[in-house]
Design brief:
homohexamer, globular, 13 strands
Chain lengths: ~325, ~325, ~325, ~325, ~325, ~325
């Protein structure tokens, strides 16, 4: 009886402490992160009841992931497996010019071989929205099929559907991504896409408004949200363009900013807010996230609303 | 739709690191602990579906407690309050002769003023067992009343009821404890009592068997479990005496050992195991707990069963 | 035989590490802080001999506070109590927009019920200046009375007196603060007030100079120092206006900046420096404080003087 | 120009801190360990010049392994690969009954596909002894072939050869191990075997002496060392039986104890010590290792000799 | 106006964390320790008012030492120097057979060149007992002279005098120690000596009673206390022999155990307790110290008395 | 058979954690740093085979230094000594105005008394470049002589020679530095000098180009590199002027930036790059270093080249 159902992989993130290098560190900090669970948590914190579907190995590491997600109050529907390993990623943060660097170590994770039929068929009952990211179908052929079947199943059960393109060059080429994702887009109601991905993967030219209108027209989408990094975001819904700047933030940890944005947007849409208002929450939640260690936006709705009210928005435009 | 419903206070525990003194430490480790939530977690891990009823302040500290409990998979039914402070306790471990020392800082916590009517009345629906400890009625007059009403409500809803005496000399005198607890005993089916408490609070003489038989007779109890520290435990149920030694353990953190024992016992009884088998699980879970930092028995059923099978039981008897 | 005697509450501060949230942290860093002890330490380090009057629980936590203060060389005159709890505050730092957030947990601390007669009556002998902040009378009615009696006692013993308004909205309303503080002002020689507090609590309009002159006139004060955040500070003494900019600082921990300012100012005045020179020390000490973890300005007089000489003052004016 | 050349996999070990569980920890300690590199380091520290042959991914994690090994002074001859992942293992220590638990995550590591021809053919020049463990041929069919070819190559180059059976039930069955290892034994001069492995994998009955004599006879070995856990070790060489007790140790970290034993034994044999003297060094180094965090015996020859001289040997026999 | 005045060197101790080796550690824990300041702190905590005389470099490291000592409430009378370096010692703890190992790095510390005339001559006014250890005269010729002059000065000012032989083989030979110390003994009232030092340095044979009587006779001492490690201690005073066993302790950190013993003994003697009672406090404080990280016995008098009352004394005799 | 041979002192660096003061910290982070070994490591990482000549005490602390350097792959040629202490320096980082402060504790380190004849005379065989810094001859008269003899020896063996002036005011006066260094300059081919040192120590006026030309003319140098802090660097070689800006960096740890610059420059010159290209590598490596904790540029050649290609150069000019 969730508002939001998400599907995707969640990894353990092992990070070198501030200033240190992965090559030299004697200690790794453990976090839990994945695009869809990050999104589910942000949505839960902004008022939606969320469920996360996934597969995990039945090991201390797999249980670590599940318990962290549950601690944020989201429901978990997990296909536990005897085989497969817990997906990991190693992360090193550095000031510029070093920046943030990621090493994926996620091969052979259970999600790569999970089938849609391994989940409780009643999971979509009474739910209202299904979400996954463009990372999931990049994980394996099976993951692609499962994504496809879950999207279909969600629609058949009367749910709306949403996806964030989230292109990851370490997982596939732009051409592969394009071929797969464009087959999934017709099953979507809401699409989030970074302008950089729209150009690199989808091959769209033009400004964000043109790009969003293109997507709406080509795939019969209800809402398209184009994010533009520090230049804010733009949404088109019912033919109306909504824009919002980013809120200035001192970044402690940039990972998960986009997922915080998506989760807050979806939660507020589910609660009945209009697209413009949902964009405000999304931008404020994303900004708050940047100050917090780890992948997850551990915020409260009250904090996000206080930020919106204080108007600390970057008015550089 | 839980097997087990528990009610009681859960505190943040702030511990000095190994070797350090509270008076000098520059760092405190944060744990979450309370007799009833420790019990609920142990029960959940041994196979029961558990719910924890309590009151918490709506603050980062209160949410810290809730999220930790949820991470273990238990359901929470919380009366969130604007007023009141998060109960704390400070802890220092030392080798002998220093031992473990606790400073309670739990006055004015929300549980002291919560009423039974602040909880969802359907919480007992489909549940099978209600548990609280003798700590809860020691917290305030209101807490005593609420304990009483929840015990009555549970019985009316058809649940079995259980309590661990858990006498805390920093909260009340033996006489106060006696006066209050003996009024609650008639509402119980299962009673756990440490032999030391039976003597100090209840005034019973005699060996554990005599003591358990006394309690069964006097309060019409179904099961009485008498724990005897390192000398193992004894249970009487249906007139049959069951005994079990402790499993030897190298103690890293003794806090929560008794709760682990109770939680495992109740979970296995709820699953249909007989009293003797439940005592085995209880003893093994308690032993495992002693090796783990914090108040909570983060074990798996498989680990506990492996210990039972390996027979590492202390056969000093 | 101190130069400076201060009176007020000192708490344990429990802070989440950098980047972490109180709601999620597994570790708290322990610091010791209170407006008057912070001030006493800054004064001691800038050359004054300082004493701190207060009440503490006779517990490891209370002793923690006392030992930390003594480590900086200040004398302590403490009413140790069997009852009452150690005042705490929880702190979380975040980059913008998260900022610094504080949860007070200081109810029922011994200072709230301490009487002026509980201190050694000779404490003012040979002393030259008494200082407290506007936080102390906000703690309880008794604390207000005690503040009043100590101020009177200090004057009768021939000491000068000083106060920093230090309005705390989590303790009382502007109206309550106004009613209480304006009764204490006539007993003062030196008043420090942030311009924001002057407006919100005292209801003064006008620029800092007008405001300071108003206060001098209304309460027959000898010196008024108006602090203006990043815009520097202004003092009026003997009809002469002194101004000083802030020294630029990369802020690691902003807590205690104002107390460092006050402590340095008072120490240098006690040593015979004129108001303008004292403002330089105050500004430099405050700036140095911002780079140091914790509430306390662990500086040396040499460091502060090196900063003054290097002229790293922000010359934006 | 090494005395000792070893071949095998070295992993990153990620350990939960003392008292913590892998399922709950927020921090992992990073160590580097592998049977053959542990052995090479112990040998180097006891006086041998050692080289380690292996394959590693050219990533920060692979470089972490190499740099740690070099820090102990051993030479590395590494086949760096673009593909493959750094082998990991997760470790949790607990007091009894929890004990030490290991999760291997070493599939697809480069060593599983490295060929003997990928190493510099001159690596055996001037070397005197080649060592690998029974873990290496368990990793893959290719690893088995490479082990075989390196053993042959070593012998052709005039080196002695040594192996420790080191049976790992998480890698293969006793039958598989038996089938593979008994094909390698004829290429050996020196064999180390734990009595438990001798029984489980090799199927030998009888006491250690009988067992060692069997092995010498069957595989024409020069030296066989049978280790018996806390009951010490026995070696047969030139028909002479040498025995040595363990030195008592308070175990902080048991991992790598056997490798420390082997490394010290081989180093002292290479330096010309007789088998009895080498057993003394082996036992003392192994004992010292148990007190040190991590997989590696960071000892000095002087420390080991001081232990031998102090005679702290457990003389329970 | 102290009860007890002590003189000696206090170092910064830099320790490798548990399990780690100095050769490999990436982190050092900072403690403050020196025989005489350890003794002064134990005495202060057991009820004596204590002063510590010494010399320190005027640097952050020197100030670190002073502030730590003051935090325990002792007064410091320090000759601050521009030259000289802060004495350090590096420490590594390991389980057996590794044990505790110390590297001194204390050459050129200011105490080695401080003269008795650099201290405030009024420091002995109203004081009752002067204490130093046999380490101080080992530091330099000047330190020996200063020790001699302070002992004489103390006696002239009417103080009793006490010394613990505390032989350190890393500082001087038994012959050197003998030559120096026996010249100082005639200036003493109370002498503490470990039986091992009595034999190695003083050349005494015989049992502890004979040894103590010898010393009393030869140097006209009032009290001699002979410590015998785990076999307890023996004191002779006014011809009466007092003996006391050790209290069993799980040792976390053995450093400073002897100083805790001496400080408690002296404090209780100063408070009027007889020698037998003072031995009880000494033994209990020493036992408590073993459970605490660092060199210092951070105990309360109440804790020590609770231990004495609980009678947890090892009654192996 | 190294490309680069360096000679100089390497110390243990003991740093207070971020935000903390040396005077108050309870923990010190251990790093290893010295101008010449920092340079050797940077060179090794940029492609040169490097050897470091020095003297160290044969103690855990001395071995700590050696093992850290070896972990980066450089060869060590060490004169191990029984006497002498490991050189240390204590470091505290703070934001402005606190800045970075260093306390040297390096007196009596073995390098101060090592002679050139204590090194293996074959160390220059097949080597191509010898490097030391202007710190080394400041350490002692003997160190000055040894520096001189190694420079001569290197030239006689056919090596090029290089030096960075690296003036340290805590070691000697500008006049002393001038007198010593100008005697060494004639033995150099390549000289690095910060413009500030050129003015303070060498007394040169004029712009960087004039200054470099002066040096070339006066000492018959082949290459002079003048570094100008945030204003980039200028090199003159064969009469051609090369300039390069700094790459912008968020500084986590500034120590070792200059050594990273020198090491990269030399490595690329040794590999055949021209001076302009070598300056690019030097600037990029220095920038990368600023983001990394510790004294050492733990970079890869690929990272440095990626930075050069991305053109993130500060184009403020």
């Amino acid at each position: 009886m969730s508002d939001l159902v998400t599907f995707g992989e969640t990894m353990l993130r092992l990070s070198a402490p501030q200033g240190e290098r992965l090559e030299r560190t004697e200690e790794l900090e453990v976090y839990v992160g994945g695009a869809e669970s990050n999104t589910a948590i942000a949505a839960e914190r902004l008022g939606a009841v969320s469920t996360w579907l996934s597969a995990l190995p039945d090991s201390p590491l797999g249980r670590r992931v599940a318990s962290e997600l549950r601690s944020h109050g989201i429901d978990t529907e997990i296909a536990w497996t005897e085989d497969g390993r817990q997906g990991l990623y190693f992360l090193e943060h550095g000031g510029e010019p070093r920046g943030t660097n990621v090493i994926y170590d996620r091969d052979d994770a259970p999600i790569a071989s999970v089938g849609a039929d391994q989940f409780d068929p009643t999971v979509f009952e009474d739910a209202r929205l299904f979400y996954t990211s463009g990372i999931t179908p990049a994980l394996s052929e099976q993951a692609r099929d499962t994504t496809y079947h879950l999207l279909q199943g969600a629609r058949e059960a009367g749910l709306r559907t949403a996806m964030d393109v989230n292109y990851r060059s370490k997982l596939w080429t732009p051409e592969e991504a394009n071929a797969t994702l464009t087959k999934l887009f017709p099953a979507l109601d809401v699409l989030f896409v970074a302008i950089r991905d729209a150009r690199e993967v989808l091959g769209y030219e033009g400004n964000p408004t043109e790009l969003a209108n293109h997507l709406i027209a080509e795939y019969d989408l209800q809402t398209v949200v184009v994010t533009r990094g520090e230049h804010g975001a733009l949404a088109i819904h019912d033919g109306v363009v909504h824009e919002h700047d980013v809120y200035e933030a001192e970044t402690y940890d940039p990972i998960g900013t986009g997922d915080a944005f998506v989760g807050a947007f979806l939660a507020r849409r589910l609660s009945g807010d209009d697209v413009g208002r949902a964009l405000e929450y999304a931008a404020a939640t994303a900004s708050y996230k940047r100050t917090i260690a780890g992948d997850v936006a551990s915020v409260t709705k009250e904090e996000v609303e206080a930020l919106i009210e204080s108007g600390a928005e970057d008015v550089s435009r």
